[in-house]
């Protein structure tokens, strides 16, 4: 198989973790007799510096030609003085998600037994680790609703507005993804909303309930308010399986999930839509969900696992290469189990650097 991939390393730790992930991807594909055809393009702050905008036309064009996008991370203090709408995150990552209609964000929350001590949760509550998935709606809600503006008022005050909008059809299509995910696991689905306060959440809950009742009576569906879900996630994360929620809640809960799973540096993600690539599989954007981490950039200490695991998700979803994806997942697991870890998951032991961690995963492939 020929895999055409647009590589967008981005800013700060982005290029570092991408540098550790690429050799792993190349090796697993070479071994399987596949041809990796990739090109690297600036995005985010790097796009602003090189081409004058966060999502350069050439970068977008390269993404359109590719079967999938492997994304690093964008943003940081260097571009903080720009107007909010021109900053790397809002001017590159969000438009990419919107442009390719990547409405389904899949974030696996995995705490292997070997990392139980890295979790802030009491060990007896997570004795067998954590294995959950967050399905986050990614192109609706507060992130994209209009109006979105800041206005000085006649009385000298200033007003900012964001708008939360959801359509029934948007809720149904993400519910469909959640159902498929639950079916491939334990047929349990938890939908999270704020239906005691928000109109969007009332529609969300009604729509999810009706859709699951009609299309997936085999799925055991439950609902939680988001505040309660946030509390349960830190009290008893092992009880979670497939969590479905809207854009903003998913942003917050997936970071919390990553923290209870030991580190944000382990959180991979897949963003998918309805568009198919040349292989008839979903075109997608794959990225570590942890951000560009300016504070630790350039020091060879960032955890490359989220980027490496994102590459595995890409092989799985956009190319159907499950054996190759399994091999990467297993190599990461083995590396960690053997005690080779970056500082975020080393809890006191001597830490491996970004490059050393990448090399260790590669060696265990
Ligand atoms: C994420 C990130 C992004 C988001 C930021 C960088 C815009 O936090 O992917 O979770 O809020 O979606
Ligand atoms: Mg986030």
- The percentage helix is 40-55%
How many domains make up the coordinates?
A: 2
Strand order of the largest sheet: 2-1-3-12-11-4-5-10-8-9
The geometry reads as globular
CATH homologous superfamily designation of the largest domain: Isopropylmalate Dehydrogenase
> How many beta strands in the DSSP annotation?
12
Low-pLDDT ranges: none
Mean pLDDT: 97
Top keywords for this entry?
single chain, alpha/beta, 2 domains, Isopropylmalate Dehydrogenase, ten-stranded mixed sheet, 41% helix, 12 helices, binds 3-isopropylmalic acid, 365 residues, two-stranded antiparallel sheet, binds magnesium ion
Overview of the molecule:
- The protein is α/β, with parallel strands linked by helices and 365 residues long.
- It has 2 domains: 1-104 and 263-365, Isopropylmalate Dehydrogenase (3-Layer(aba) Sandwich), CATH 3.40.718.10; 120-260, Isopropylmalate Dehydrogenase.
- Helix content is 41%, strand content 22%.
- The chain is built from 12 helices and 12 strands.
- It has helices spanning 13-31, 45-51, 57-65, 88-99, 168-183, 199-215, 226-235, 247-260, 305-319, 322-337, 343-346, 354-363, and strands spanning 2-10, 35-40, 68-73, 104-111, 130-137, 145-152, 158-163, 188-193, 220-225, 242-245, 270-276, 282-286.
- The strands form 2 sheets. It has a 10-stranded mixed beta sheet with strand order 2-1-3-12-11-4-5-10-8-9, with helices on both faces. The protein has a two-stranded antiparallel sheet with strand order 6-7.
- A hairpin with a 5-residue loop joins β11 (270-276) and β12 (282-286).
- The radius of gyration is 20 Å and the shape is globular.
- The two termini are 20 Å apart.
- The model has no long low-confidence stretch (mean pLDDT 97).
- The structure holds 3-isopropylmalic acid (IPM) and magnesium ion (MG).
- 3-isopropylmalic acid (IPM) binds next to α4.
């Amino acid at each position: 198989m020929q895999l055409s991939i647009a590589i967008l390393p981005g800013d700060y730790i982005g290029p570092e973790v991408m540098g550790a992930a690429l050799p792993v991807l190349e090796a697993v594909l070479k071994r399987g007799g596949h041809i990796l055809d990739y090109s690297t393009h600036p995005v985010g702050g790097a796009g602003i510096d090189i081409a004058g905008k966060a999502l350069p036309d050439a970068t977008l064009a390269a993404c359109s030609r590719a079967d999938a996008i492997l994304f690093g991370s964008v943003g940081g203090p260097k571009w903080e003085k720009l107007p909010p709408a021109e900053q790397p995150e809002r001017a590159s990552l969000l438009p990419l998600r919107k442009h390719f209609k990547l409405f389904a964000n899949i974030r696996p929350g995995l705490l292997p037994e070997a990392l139980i001590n890295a979790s802030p949760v009491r060990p007896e509550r997570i004795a067998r680790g954590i294995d959950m998935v967050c399905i986050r709606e990614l192109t609706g809600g507060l992130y994209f609703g209009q109006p979105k503006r800041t206005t000085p008022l006649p009385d000298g005050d200033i007003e900012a507005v964001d708008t939360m909008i959801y359509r029934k059809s948007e809720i149904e299509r993400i519910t469909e993804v959640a159902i498929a995910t639950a079916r491939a696991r334990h047929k349990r689905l938890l939908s999270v909303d704020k239906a005691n306060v928000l109109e969007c959440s009332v529609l969300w809950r009604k729509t999810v309930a009706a859709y699951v009742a009609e299309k997936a009576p085999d799925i055991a569906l439950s609902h939680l308010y988001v505040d309660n879900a946030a509390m349960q996630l830190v009290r008893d994360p092992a009880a979670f399986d497939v969590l479905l929620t809207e854009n903003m809640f998913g942003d917050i809960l997936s970071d919390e999930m990553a923290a209870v799973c030991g580190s944000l540096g382990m959180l991979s993600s897949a963003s998918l839509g309805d568009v198919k690539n040349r292989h008839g599989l979903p075109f997608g954007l794959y990225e570590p969900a942890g951000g560009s981490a300016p504070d630790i950039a350039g020091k060879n200490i960032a955890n490359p696992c989220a980027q490496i695991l994102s590459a595995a998700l890409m092989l799985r979803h956009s190319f159907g290469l499950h054996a190759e994806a399994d091999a990467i997942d297993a190599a990461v697991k083995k590396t960690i189990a053997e005690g080779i870890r970056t500082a975020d998951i080393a809890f006191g032991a001597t830490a491996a650097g970004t490059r050393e961690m990448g090399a260790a995963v590669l060696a265990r492939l």
